[in-house]
Design a protein that fits this description.
CATH superfamily of the largest domain: NAD(P)-binding Rossmann-like Domain
Oligomer: single chain
Number of helices: 10
Helix content: 40-55%
Number of strands: 7
Order of helices and strands: HEHEHEHEHEHHEHHHE
Largest sheet: 7 strands, parallel
CATH architecture of the largest domain: 3-Layer(aba) Sandwich
Distance between the termini: 43 Å
Structural class: alpha/beta
Amino acid sequence: MTPNPVSDVHFNFSGRSAIVTGAAAGIGKAIAIRLAHAGASVCLVDIDHDKLNTVAQSLGDQNHQVLSIYGDLRNWDFADQVFERAYDAFGPIDTLVNCAGIFPASPFAEITADFWDKIHDLNLKAAMRMSQVACAHMNEHNISGTIVNIASINAFRGKARHAAYSASKAGLVSLTRTLALELAPSIRVNAIAPGPVDTEGAVAAAAEKTEGREAERIKENYIEKIPLQRFASPDEIAIAAMFLASQSANYITGTTLVADGGLTLS
């Protein structure tokens, strides 16, 4: 039996439809762009109205099938609205990428209930609710679908001043494994745990933590610990997400792909 050429299998999303949360910037934006260029119809979801429209307009100008939906994923009922509108635009949805997230820092002793809930409501609860609605949608339309969650190496190694964030990402990894068991065989669920990624959000967070000072030095210190000696680009994480969502990963479920340049080895 002659296998299909890799190029025909790995990144061919023609006839497929995807929802990507956190699609206005960073990793989510890169994933949305990659999926659109691979032929998928893509629903972009984010709370940043202006950036979301910029991404959607750019893809639309290139004749890609896109829909942008502005809203707060922490609203429990918003997930239903997203899938209803995406279905109206594209038909059944077979791919969900949960990428929306925030990573503010706080000393553990100073974490408040509001701070904790703000992070977990978006990083974990929103991903759970979107996956719950995706499961119902895919089952209703008899779809063999896939869910990809964007976690973090902080789920495994922790980071000072990021207790809330690390716990939310550890929860997302555990959710991934549990859903892979419960939703099989029709829906595959996997995650990616990126290390440092060169995004606007990461740079802004470093600048905020240092009040604008030594942000570059923080990056240099990180790079010294990374065996591959650099941050990932958002597009490199996007390519990993595309692989997990593609037909080439049809026998992969419940895994968390670590994409950190070897940082967790150091």
